[in-house]
Hints:
Layout (H helix, E strand, L loop, with lengths): L9 E3 L13 E2 L19 H8 L3 E4 L5 H20 L5 E4 L4 H5 L16 E5 L1 H7 L5 E4 L8 E3 L2 E3 L2 H13 L13 E2 L4 H8 L6 E6 L5 H4 L3 H15 L3 E6 L8 E4 L6 E7 L3 H7 L5 E5 L2 H8 E2 L8 E5 L14 E5 L1 H9 L21 H12 L5
Parallel strand pairs: 2-7, 3-4, 3-5, 5-6, 9-15, 10-11, 10-14, 11-13, 14-16, 16-17
Antiparallel strand pairs: 1-17, 7-8, 12-13
Helix pairs in contact: 2-5, 2-10, 8-12
Amino acid sequence: xxxxxxxxxxxxxxxxxxxAGAVHTTPLGYNRDGVPLGAxxxxxxxxxxxxxxxxxGEIEVAFEGKxxxxxxxxxxxxxxxxxxxxxxxxxxxxxxxxxxxLIARTGLxxxxxxxxxxxxxxxxxxxxxxxxxxxxxxxxxxCDPAAPPCWSSDGYAHPDLPARHYLALxxxxxxxxxxxxxxxxxxxxGPNELVEELGSVGxxxxxxxxxxxATSWPERKDYTAQRYxxxxxxxxxxxxxxxxxxxxxxxxxxxxxxxxxxSRRHVQVLRIDGVPANDLADLFPRCRxxxxxxxxxxxxxxxxxxxxxxxxPVVGLYARHSHSKWRTGLPHHHAxxxxxxxRMHQGDLCPVRDAIAPGTDARMDAFPSASLARVxxxxxxxxxx
Length: 385
């Protein structure tokens, strides 16, 4: 697929491999391809961590913070579960907190629980989860998105957060673990009453596009519903098809709210606000395309896969944050990014953490709908997948 050149905007396909010399990286310290599965790494393990984890009979997965940070950190849970499997240790892995239902979809938790005689427990969580428990666990593994660097190994960079979390824990545990890129675990989907209802009235037939309008920072990270509608109209006209656009908003004070807008020439629009993430995980794989703000529900769309393992291409819009770090690393999860986003990628920077002057920020109006439509049309036609 040809990169989008309009106003410095570029398309970055999910399958793109980044050479180590092209971005700021930290050497992993070993060639993963040269270390057999389960073999010790040529680096010292964290003996204290390994000793404490080895004595635990239960792992509690207890994220409480942002949805997007949680989803991208699930690769750390995968690393811990892979470590237990390599050592042939049977330990109960249970999810608690607001994301327990989503985490259970990864297959990483134990169903039903394993019966153990040990009462020692390890908690893997974000800072909010650890603070909410203050439980005196034997081990607290904290997943902080600002902590793990962009690792490089075998001549390639691993810039996405799932890879950073997985490899950081592999290094600390000191054993070559099973996963290779991409490191993010999928979320399995299944029957869903809301999804079946939408399908029964035709909203999931034909060219259905989901646009994620939810964002925690509307003034800087919201493409807006009107721009998404204009985008859908251009896609529908080019495809010579009627499109159905689902505008996916975040939580609302009034709970779930679903309302249809007046029909347009090429697009029917349905606003969906406040629907729980568990339901949206079942909805996204039924769409033909997902486009979204840089936010947790867009990450959710990339991780959710249908019962047959399929899912639509997902396009995230990145104006101010690194387009590579804040993606899942999965080949169908693409980015359209500004020049500033690419500079954040190249230098492994964060405009918040590194206090980049707000006056230099690119904004969401940097993405012309015509340029974005060309990217989406190519993806719908199988170009660049």
